[in-house]
């Protein structure tokens, strides 16, 4: 093997080993680093405006953004998390004490809706079995919620450390993001034209996906909590927050919450309240996605709905709550890479055609037109 080739192989091996080692060292804090990168991308335009107004004072501008994030994002998030925990604890207590027995609503089904009961019996479905399954499902959900609330309380110190680490990394990214981006951009193995299109497409898709998810989640959580409070449903903040989380999972989203709740209200005798909830859910909560997302995202590219569903569920299963955002972001990267590859193949085929048209015919030696 020539010395130059040997040095190249050795150098590439060292780079790969160093990169893998760095990833292993940072792996315990990957979630904090990921959120720092996401916030840096989202707040980068504001950072540029602040630097222009403050005559290039990067450190002051970055610190001001950190303060704004703490005041307007972290504090409200902690407050909402506390309200959610209280609501979850109240719901769990009602289930465990027997005050809330959702399965008993099915006992009135044969008398109130005999045709529905006959239809279920024709399908071979026993109401008693359905009642047992529903009751067991709510008990399991309550036990799951109790165990997770306990885990959250026990790991509060670790969570606060990750929040502090994310803010620290975010401050560093806001200060030195230009140099970090330029270094990564220059070392990216592609042509200048391809790099411009790839980084632009990925940035647009990732930002559009995150903005759309967050904005729709907040709006549907507020609308859902408001209608539950108006209808005097217990723990409206808790159920509203769940609707906000489910809103990022198409195609049904928040309907996983308000749909069964409306049906249960009707089966429990509250026909007017159930109809109001179902109508408001279908006409306002679900339709808010079609209003809010175009306003916030605009015409920026977004990930198709079916891919958002798969990657959101996959991200949630693999990475927890962080996967709700990480899954669609990975989908954005996947689509950006394949679109770049497809455009490169198309450009190469277009540039190759003139060369073939000017070439000579191998059989006659004459120039083809």
UniProtKB/TrEMBL annotation:
Keywords: Membrane, Transmembrane, Transmembrane helix
Region (Disordered): 346-369
Protein's membrane topology: Multi-pass membrane protein
Segments crossing the lipid bilayer: 14-43, 55-84, 149-174, 212-231, 237-258, 270-288, 308-335
Pfam families cross-referenced by the UniProt entry: AI-2E_transport (PF01594)
Keyword Membrane: yes
Ligase in keyword set: no
Primary location group: membrane
Subcellular location: Membrane
Residue ranges, compositional bias (Basic and acidic residues): 346-359
PANTHER family: TRANSMEMBRANE PROTEIN, TRANSMEMBRANE PROTEIN 245
Family: Belongs to the autoinducer-2 exporter (AI-2E) (TC 2.A.86) family.
Protein name listed in UniProt: AI-2E family transporter
Organism of provenance: Sedimentitalea todarodis
